[in-house]
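Re: export button greyed out
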Amino acid sequence: MATRETIEAVLAGAVERARACGEGEPATYIPELANAPLDALSAAITLRDGSIVRAGDDEHRFTFQSSAKLVLLAGLLEERGEDEVFRIVGREPSGGGFASLARLETHGPIPANPLINPGAIALASILEGHLEDRLAWIERWAERLYGDALPIQQRVLASERRTGDRNRSIAHFLKASGVIDGDVDEVLEVYFALCSIEGSVVEASRLAAILATGGLAPRSGERVLSQRTASTVVSIMATCGMYDESGAYLCATGLPAKSGVSGVIVAVATGRGGIAVASPRLNKKGGSVRGHLVLREISRELGWHFALPD
Amino acid sequence: MATRETIEAVLAGAVERARACGEGEPATYIPELANAPLDALSAAITLRDGSIVRAGDDEHRFTFQSSAKLVLLAGLLEERGEDEVFRIVGREPSGGGFASLARLETHGPIPANPLINPGAIALASILEGHLEDRLAWIERWAERLYGDALPIQQRVLASERRTGDRNRSIAHFLKASGVIDGDVDEVLEVYFALCSIEGSVVEASRLAAILATGGLAPRSGERVLSQRTASTVVSIMATCGMYDESGAYLCATGLPAKSGVSGVIVAVATGRGGIAVASPRLNKKGGSVRGHLVLREISRELGWHFALPD
Amino acid sequence: MATRETIEAVLAGAVERARACGEGEPATYIPELANAPLDALSAAITLRDGSIVRAGDDEHRFTFQSSAKLVLLAGLLEERGEDEVFRIVGREPSGGGFASLARLETHGPIPANPLINPGAIALASILEGHLEDRLAWIERWAERLYGDALPIQQRVLASERRTGDRNRSIAHFLKASGVIDGDVDEVLEVYFALCSIEGSVVEASRLAAILATGGLAPRSGERVLSQRTASTVVSIMATCGMYDESGAYLCATGLPAKSGVSGVIVAVATGRGGIAVASPRLNKKGGSVRGHLVLREISRELGWHFALPD
Amino acid sequence: MATRETIEAVLAGAVERARACGEGEPATYIPELANAPLDALSAAITLRDGSIVRAGDDEHRFTFQSSAKLVLLAGLLEERGEDEVFRIVGREPSGGGFASLARLETHGPIPANPLINPGAIALASILEGHLEDRLAWIERWAERLYGDALPIQQRVLASERRTGDRNRSIAHFLKASGVIDGDVDEVLEVYFALCSIEGSVVEASRLAAILATGGLAPRSGERVLSQRTASTVVSIMATCGMYDESGAYLCATGLPAKSGVSGVIVAVATGRGGIAVASPRLNKKGGSVRGHLVLREISRELGWHFALPD
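Workaround output, generated via the alternate export path:
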């Protein structure tokens, strides 16, 4: 097991080298995301003992976007159990894009997995109560996993709402197929809010650290998620977390992860800690260019690939 | 880390309980496979130190079928390197069946990954020399990974040849798309021979044990595969090894694996050892019913899920 | 050319024989349609000279549903011309169902043709002005082609709105793809109103008669559509009008047609006249069971197959 | 009805104008086709009375390629009847390319229609007897419909065989799906021979003329095909004959047709006559660029669109 000093040096070096790469463009389909500081780069590792290693731009805050789907999945697995959750979403890689309707039509009706948009929208539909109650559920689980009460970024939320036709199409499709019930607009409101949670790599890495310990809070060691929930979430990250580059990414890093279009990647090093990297420059498949570079270097230098023994 | 005694007890118990399950049918699309003893069940674990734990029907021998695709992949990664291998196959879950042509047409031309039929056929096409040389290459790598010179089962081979129209269709498609060159019948002959390697769970578990140690031979500790090759193969097993139940299987067991239609499953417990289970009764998706049961119990009882810390 | 007496006898006989068939079920996905009188059957032929031959239940009124897509297509071809219309929809059979999104995703962005739901929704989006203006456009063209100011059936309209999630999904998808602009709900309101035009087979057959004469009003002989518009609409009916049984239907009858889920079929016998048949019992592909029977018998007895010379 | 003089003038003018267009490239996937004289252009119309109108390069001979699928379809409909034929192929537009396997996998097992490669290969498989007998069947029906004993072009046949991997893939797929039986290589040999029939536009237009009269031989008036066979073949040409530009082509010309990659188009003007045009320059969808131009002009100038009354 690497010492804290080694981890600090490796992370600092990886961030510095990644900064040299100027490839990739920020997402534009949610217009507000295009306003992110293009060259911001930040990374944090929350270690098993709760200590935090940081590098890069401390002040960089961003919306968690699809990486927040982990909150929804973990919370529902805890409260409702696998049977209920996997009645409305699958656990399989979709083999396609993150917002595909074709697959729903040909392989559906239930979405392939909870980490693509149709899957997260389906899960958002089973939260109960008034819209306020459902938003409160999101806030509560976000606080539990990120360790802090994080705000919903209102400009991004407005941008998601204004340009969310693809997600509206998915939600109405799921309703037409009988997968979801109730008011589609309210379901989407929950989904858009989930994507608009704002924070930094520190909070994001805390969620990953909980997953890396089989469900325990860093520092306190208090159980936040059951082992079963934690291992299920990490398994789905391994197979489905990076959309259609999940396989190549896992080969290269061995760190199960979930990306978001804001450029964040949340990655799990089981038994070691949780990692988050954020940088808005995206590759063609929607993954953070520099995030990939940082995670590859961490994995290689620290020997954190899940398929390599200690 | 569990003691050898614990592992023995867990494996024996798991095999005994799995034997009670009479669900599933043997594969029929390769007629000779239907002649397998329906209720045979055998399992072996090759531990890191080279010791072997066994349970079930010792005499049970079977063809390795698709699980032998691992030999082709590992051997080519060693000899040719990633760049050459991943120029003709991808590393992504296909999101569909193991012999699908539709995906080649819509997402191709290269096959999604090396563990579905199109991927293995594509890889078989880059072996060099006369047909004898290519068969010799297969034998050599099989011996290196399985630890023994294993025979090609001639009746199964004849059955594969006689009924291999789906694979012929795939191979001609790949040739028409420019992915493979040369004589299609010779490529298929290599592929059919690979699937017809015959052995027991002991040899199959040895290959898994090599992958579980990052590439070292059990007992001798000699390096057989580079860390890079081993971790890449295991990563692809994690995302693509169990066809369209890869995701659900990984959640349940956390043991990256590759199945074969003879009912074998070869699974990797990184840092612990390699597991093989064989039983001809298959579920609807082509996975061994009892194999799944045994692996779930091993994972749960020994805490060998990759996403749970020691 | 058959005499009026022959045509009357053939139509009466065909309707009588079709009435004996009790197969098929009314559409249920628009709940209000399920309230249609299950065994109503009516048919009318408007001949070239404007005379009308009728048979069956005179009082049967129904909503025109997808058959009214012809109004939208013909009106836009007249006013905007082919270039503008075929910039946002194709002219090709889709090879799939009438409400498929998969095809939009894989072959899009523009819908395959104007007679499937995505195509008609796309066309509805280019009507101009306030919602009232667009509804007025529909009413104006419906009156011009059906020969009468027909009402919008309000219960059916309400039912379409309440259960229109599949169409909402399509419309948001088209907006997300940049095919349509503007307020999706208003576009759907126009589309739902179009489907809810209510009339009898007499008015429906008049539209078909205009198409059968290359665009002339029955009786008056006044030009309503250009030859170009009429022949284009009939050609698209021939290849795409009966969803995924268009080919088998055309072989059997040789009468290019458009069906609606209320059980209406509007069919064109070029040079002879326009035919409409209505009966709510539908086959598995959404076509009227008795409508098919009546049209097959008319075609055979009168020699009206387009591919047979006089 | 236009006079012979008018038809001659229209055809001569259309051919002259089409000659000015230098767009399009010859097919290259069958290498021998690339050797065709690039600018050859010939056209013929066989009228109802058996007289023939010609224009362009008299000496131009070419292989009939996919246009000869009409021979197979018509002959089998006559000898086996609809029930048997449409048990192994459909009658629906495929909505995709002419050699697609994806559709077989997703909508199969039977091919969508007899005018795409999978459909014609399936039909070729039901010819009976030794290979010689099946080739003799093709020759016999070709002579009956083309009016002459036409040769098989041996260089093209050799080229088809050498490069026919896509068709081999299709044939093995159909065998694997249980659609075809027997020796795949022999089925393909029949199919390749069918595509390699060589002749001129005169013979090709004779087949079309038989279809245009509901099945009667030009001049003699002798019945060659039943009305039922003729109208079924023409209906399938209308919906499926021009691959994925069938719809746009039918709108533009109203002349049901079948194309071949040698650049021939065989088109039917019901009640008037049969047309053939040949020119090797192809558009992106595999249709003859100049063939389209000639047929559009004939249709427009002579008023031969099927959807316009006399």
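Chain A has a mean pLDDT of 95. The button fix ships in the next patch.
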